[in-house]
Amino acid sequence: MFFHKDPQLETLGDRILEKIWVAFPGLARNQLALTWLVYDPPAPINIGGALHPEEFWNYSPRGFSYRGVELTYPASVVKLFYLVAIHEWLERGMVQPSVELDRAIRDMIVDSSNDATGLIVDVVTGTTSGPELAPGPFAAWKQQRQIVNRYFQSLGWDELKTINVCQKTWCDGPYGRERAFYGELMENRNMLTTIATARLLHSIVGGVAVSASRSQAMMNLLRRSLNPDDLLANPENQVTGFLGSGLPLNASLWSKAGLMSRVRHDAAYIELPGCYPYLLVVFTEGANQAKNESILPFISQQIAEAVRSLSAPANKG
Q1: 118: pLDDT confidence band, cut at 50, 70 and 90?
Q2: pLDDT 10s digits, 69-85
Q3: 284 vs 66, 203, 257, CA distance in Å?
Q4: Closest-CA residue to 223 (of 203, 253, 197, 249)
Q5: Do 170 and 114 form a contact (C-beta atoms < 8 A)?
Q6: Contact in structure between 174 and 190 (CB atoms under 8 Å)
């Protein structure tokens, strides 16, 4: 894995899990997955391309994971993967920049717009939604729609071997060729793990997702305000009811949330004053859990308290 286990984090992580089970007895053990990374100094984050990607990947942060390899429907967290993909396509000149494309990229991440995401998927894959297709054209269409999966598999990251990121995100659901593409039992729906999501976000934070400048552009979109007035002004803020709600106002947060009727997720990079920066990805499943706006903030608060107590790992003195 791209991170290594650490006795201190293992102890803290296990304690946090026990607190979660006590605070939320209705949350089953198999309805939660999380991955937590800590960036000990000198951490290769926000470095503006000072490190070569190979040098960056030689850095192994310490981490803790619970059910981190379990596949889960990601809801809007998948938009992180489409964000990286569209920037890769732009970097390679496979698509051309435009004002409308910039608007869609922004709205996909800042506002979590499903309509904007649909355009990004169309642009990246060269496909469009519509009525059902005859077998031949449908086979070609399906092949094109797998291009994002092929791109991420080409990175050679073990954490991405099991994921599926080929579907649009919906308000009411897919129709026509899109519904057929899901499969009769929805077996082709998007699926992610917290470890896969953590590695992708780790690469963005480190400035090695596509390029240093494009990683910074992605970080700019992921930045979230914790100002109460801003949150009140925008009910769809991706902070209230998510990891950001468990943070003090002087924290800095970059995140992408996911929510639908049966899941509530968040993937975040967090900086607390005077503490080691850290990355936290939490997935929760179940209709009751999706409605519960207290679980993710509680977990975030527990992790933040643990980060404040951290000491340098033993091998660093």
Answers
A1: very high
A2: 999 999 999 999 999 99
A3: 12, 23, 12
A4: 253
A5: yes
A6: no
> How many Cβ atoms sit within 10 Å of the Cβ of residue 20?
21
Q: Which residue has the tokens 């979660």?
A: 20
Residue 38, strand partner residues = 62, 278
Does 95 lie in the same domain as 28?
no
Which range of residues forms the domain containing residue 282?
A: 1-72+193-311
Domain termination residue (choose one: 191, 225, 247): 191
Per-residue confidence band for 317, with pLDDT thresholds at 50, 70 and 90: very low
Q: What is the DSSP string of 11-78?
A: HHHHHHHHHHHHH-TTS-GGGEEEEEEE--SS---S-TT-S-HHHHHH---EEEEESTT--B--GGGG
Q: What is the band of 211 on the pLDDT scale with cuts at 50, 70, 90?
A: very high
Which residues are bridge partners to 279 per DSSP?
Answer: 37, 269
CB 224 within 8 A of CB 237: yes
